[in-house]
Amino acid sequence: MDRHTKEQRRKNMQAIKRKDTKIELMLRKSLWKNGLRYRVDCKDIFGSPDIAIKKYKIAVFCDSEFFHGYNWANQKDNIKSNKEYWISKIERNMQRDKNVNKILKDNGWLVIRFWGFEIIKDVEECTQKIIESIQARKKVKKSND
């Protein structure tokens, strides 16, 4: 049973951002501080990555645990209201994420996905992973030239 009225729940759901979320802003701020430049919410790249480093074909996604199905086998049992809708929606999101990963990889992109808790716990480690990916891509690019 939901603790909120339908109108309260609707208002809460409308307030959830699609872009510029707390975790995205944390990671972008850290990347910028480390001298990395990037594009945000790139509509011209399949899947509209939250952060894209086009020069090295790196797509970064910042996934919230609920909407992208973290620990899904255990978490789907915790949904209390509108269970059928949310299970279907989140499983579609998970499938879409897999498809986006595959299509981007098939087109030469490196896909990096972080869970929200990973960014909150250690944004510097996430930033370092992106920096290391750029350095690896630079080496490959040099050896191909």
Keywords:
single chain, 145 residues, alpha+beta, Endonuclease, Chain A, four-stranded mixed beta sheet, 7 helices, 4 strands, 56% helix, elongated
CATH fold-level name: Endonuclease, Chain A
Computed over alpha carbons, the radius of gyration is 17 Å
The number of helical elements comes to 7
The amount of helix comes to: 55-70%
- Going by CATH, what is the homologous superfamily? VSR Endonuclease
CATH class: Alpha Beta
Q: Count of DSSP E strands?
A: 4
Mean pLDDT: 89
Major beta sheet summary: 4 strands, mixed
Give the N-terminus to C-terminus distance in angstroms: 61 Å
List SSEs in N-to-C order: HHEEEHHHEHH
Bulk shape:
elongated
Beta-strand content estimate: 5-15%
Low-confidence stretches: none
What class would the helix/strand composition place it in? alpha+beta
Structure, described:
By secondary structure, the chain is of the alpha+beta class. The chain has one domain: Endonuclease, Chain A, CATH 3.40.960.10. It is built from 7 helices and 4 strands. The chain has a 4-stranded mixed beta sheet with strand order 1-2-3-4, with helices on both faces. α2 (22-33) crosses α7 (123-144). The mean pLDDT is 89.
SSE order and pairing:
Elements (H helix, E strand, L loop, with lengths): L5 H9 L7 H12 L5 E2 L10 E3 L4 E6 L1 H4 L3 H4 L7 H24 L3 E6 H6 L1 H22 L1
Parallel strand pairs: 3-4
Antiparallel strand pairs: 1-2, 2-3
